Amino acid sequence: MRIFQPARRENTISPLANAVLNGGFVLLSLACVLPVLLVFLVSFTHNDSLLSRGYSFVPEKWSLIAYESLFKDYATIARAYAVSIGITAGGTLASVLMMALYAYPISRQDYPLRKALTFILFFTMLFNGGIVSKYMVFTQGFGLLDSYMALILPLLIVPFNVIIMRTFFQTTIHPALIESARIDGAGELLIFTRIVLPLSLPVLATMALFGTILYWNDWFNALLFIRSEDKYPVQSLMIRVLNDIQYLRDNVQLAAQNPELMRNLPNESLQMAMAVVGMGPILVVYPFFQKYFVKGLTIGAVKG
Fold first, then answer.
1. Cα 15 to Cα 21: distance, rounded to the nearest angstrom
2. CA 67, CA 273: separation in Å to the nearest integer?
3. Where found (predicted)?
């Protein structure tokens, strides 16, 4: 019995074109990786070497002073990390759920308020209430001054991400699938939790990645709403450390009294060490989302 085997598709691209494409992708990859590597190396470079030679992939003089200055009070850094991890995990989970609950109804053609809710979504993308009104709403209206919720609620719904999820639902969840589930007696909540969400893992993972990056890198809301030092996230704490170091370097009287201290005080290397510490968790999380991230960005274009 002869088993049918599909014909193998031969690569019609010439070897020269293959070489050019591969070389181009290698250059693009290096353009993404080399800046990160340079940041990592500069963070271990002594301040004298940076002043004499500038940024270099081969530091003339190695030093750990930037990390020693940054982790001098390691308990504060650990507490800020815990705050950032808690805010990022809780905020991302709540954000993905709320945006899915918003995007799914406006993706349904039979939903009567679809146009009105879509208009409200687009309106918030075009017009912003401003910082003063935002501060008054969250502090006086909701009473969230110096509260962790003040770091979660402002980023809970991102209109552009809701549009991406709505497009995914429209192109992936066929109306016949929903209709068949309704005929079998399933309600809207059951359809959403048992059918829509399991079929939407790519876009949910993509939005989770966007939310993780957004919450982890957020420092402005902490500057605006947080007053207690023990509630600072890691990004806000690092900005405060950098401002303190810059203040010491700009203090002329202190520089005249302690010239050796000022000369060894890190500046550029400290900024790079802060970048390394700040980007670490994102580099750890991204590989888990990569497969769903690529699929979530392409499936709508393929089926649309």
1. 10
2. 6
3. Cell membrane
237-282, pLDDT tens digit by residue? 888 877 777 666 666 555 556 555 555 566 677 778 888 888 877 7
* Domain enclosing residue 167, as ranges: 65-303
Q: Are 190 and 130 in contact (CB under 8 A)?
A: no
What tens digit of pLDDT does each residue of 60-78 get?
888 888 888 777 777 888 8
18 domain residue, yes or no:
no
Q: Looking at the domain assignment, is residue 55 inside a domain?
A: no
Domains contained in the chain, number: 1
Quickly tell me which residue has 């509260």 as its tokens. Answer: 147
Q: Is 285 exposed, middle or buried (0-12, 13-18, 19+ CB in 10 A)?
A: middle
- Residue 128 belongs to domain with CATH number: 1.10.3720.10
> What are all long-range contacts of 128-133, with beta carbons under 8 Å and residues at least 24 apart?
131/224
Q: Could you tell me the pTM of the whole model? A: 0.79
The vertex-269 CA angle with 264 and 271, nearest 5°, equals 120
Query: Contact 162/103 with Cβ under 8 angstroms?
Result: yes
Report the candidate in 249, 245, 222 with the shortest Cα–Cα distance to residue 70. Answer: 245
- Contact present, 207 and 99 (Cβ < 8 Å): yes
6 domain-assigned: no
SS3 62: strand
Reported as a single tens digit per residue, the pLDDT across 78-128 is: 888 899 999 999 999 999 999 999 999 999 888 899 999 999 988 988 888
C-alpha pair distances (Å), 79 with each of 71, 83, 209, 232: 12, 6, 23, 8
Give me 246's structure tokens.
């810059």
| Residue 256 domain-assigned (yes or no) | yes
Taking Cα atoms as reference points, which of 164, 273, 170, 154 lies closest to residue 218?
Answer: 154
